[in-house]
Amino acid sequence: MSGDTVALDGPVSIGGCATAPVLRERGQREVFCGLTGIVWLHRKMQDAFFLVVGSRTCAHLIQSAAGVMIFAEPRFATAIIEERDLAGLADANEELDRVVDRLLERRPDIKLLFLVGSCPSEVIKLDLSRAAARLTTKHNPGVRVLNYSGSGIETTFTQGEDACLAALVPQMAEAAPGAAPSLLIVGALPDVVEDQFRRLFSAMGIDRVETLPARKLADLPAVGPNTRFLLAQPFLGDTARALEDRGATRLEALFPFGAEGTTDWLASAAKAFGVSDSLFQQVVTPGRERAIRALEKVRAELAGKSIFFFPDSQLEVPLARFLSRELGMIPLEVGTPYLHRPHLSRELPLLPSSTRLSEGQDVDRQLDRCRDARPDISVCGLGLANPLEMEGLTTKWSIELVFSPVHGFEQAADLAELFARPLNRRSRLSPRMAV
Fold this sequence. Notes:
The chain is of the alpha/beta class.
């Protein structure tokens, strides 16, 4: 499948990539679908359940990606669309209602049910928004039913979380007029990382800290003009717009990867809530210095190594900034499915001006550029990793960067290690491969 490649955005940047030309590509893509987000969302939202309305392929994808057994009672399942549904021989809505009734009877702990659309459900034009409204009315007040699309037809896999959180925003109560300002952390973080951030904010005197998603539906916070929010992930464009439409204000910051990014992210909130510089430094300095010391141990392995990012997760730009500035790596090309400039306005100027930026994907052309560049490590999806490894290129699975705890001071060295391990593996295997 051929695609178009267009260079945009003016002259080559001198100080970073803020005004660097962007290679825009529209061609064949190699990405997972948004259903993958269920793998981390179902662990985060303790009384929610994700019901994929899709095919057996959808079921196999989620089951294998999550790595759990059926008897573990996971908080996700698939309502299989059979041939009779596709052929119009059965009423898909009646079938869906029956599945939901059986599910809620078996699992009374469910308070929030997501109907997750897939490629098959969208092909047969199954209106899950109307189904969600119908089922909410039927099962009120015990269960709330929402819907979002996890289809991979036009999206990349992290947009499943964005669609899910955007569906939650209308369910958030209106903040009381005149209420004290609150801070909202937006993006699904592992509980241990979320708790670390809460402790830091509390030590600064910022006590009204909420999260989206909340761990339980009853804890879903209110939102309004008194809400200030920090994005924990760069791929939450729809969610950010939905919150801004409710009057909330986004705080501009680097994303909290590494010592530098985490410090800037915390500083943005501290400034918005009037925290004094002396108190901020007192709270942040111990964690930042621990992160810097831990990163120095990994820097020796990564400094001077080149890296090439295929577009996959939308984490590529902040990760490239972290690897370049704190570990001395050389980002040759940073590809991302979508370059959201407002959310990356502080990240782009910190990339080396020699970095090529690309948006979208034409996989064959990008593979050619990667082969020509021969980077020390290539960050890509699972579908490209094995072929590149066979060609002698060291790879890192981009999806692992979403599954792993990588935000904050305490995880900075763990994030760096994710890039050092493939190089260590290659160096250990090289003598054997030569034989």
